Please model this.
Amino acid sequence: MKEPIQEYAKIGLVHFMLWKDCIKGGGDPSSVNTILDDPYFGAVEVSWINDAGQRKAVAEAIRRSGKAVAFGAQPVLLTQKLDINHLEESERKKAVDAVTGVIPQAYELGARGFGLLSGKVVPEPDRSRAMEQLVKSLVEIGGELGKHGDIPLVMETFDQLDYGKNCLIGPNKDAAVIAKEVRQSIPTFGLMIDLSHLPLQGETPGEAWDAAGAYVVHAHMGNCVMNNPDHPMNGDEHPPFCIAEAENCVEELTEYLKVLRDTGYLNKERKPFLSFEVSVFDDWTPEQVIKQSKETLDAAWAQV
Model:
């Protein structure tokens, strides 16, 4: 494509994955300014910021930048080992309460989307019950979001692998079943797909979109390492693009972008979120990861 990809999407970056000191709600969230000050980006994705003063400063910086922001509640669940499809009702409710507890932060930060993930995969005899619990939780969380405004609730699909995130959702075909059910109560509910996860899910971009594209409202770009337990980033750890033994480089990102273009996800009028989710590796700095990510995207987009 000759036109910049920024004409078709808000290019963003998942802040808490690149600056992992912030993933538990602490650290120094002022690092978000690296993204806000970079004209390449039109969006940023943040998570909980437990210090009220820091949160206010980040919210003001985001507003001054004029850039779009999405809120990721995935760290709230993952770092506390909470499960919104837990078969025990008390545990399910505990997870829901944790997620709804950070909704005011999302609104304070000006979020235009609120992301989360399903809980753990369960044995087949319990699967139907777990899916029911997941739908119940998503409807409850979506209802609470609706009390504060109109931020869409978005569920990200993950792998079911022991060395990954081992999530109930999981395959995009199952995600579509959940989305159809939840939309009966929460019409704005949608799904998030991530190039980082697709190899772990055993799906190509085209297969993922065929299964769930009607419900996809958010997209991530990234990488993963598979089947090498000795690799420090084996599994769902979001290494930089194109490193040795990893799955995604320019060719794979090009295929992904072609699917997003051909299906209409990339759109000049809507300009949806399309965010890097990448992490530091070895002696890489965040700035080096950002530079390499942009170079990889530019090379891939030139081939679309």
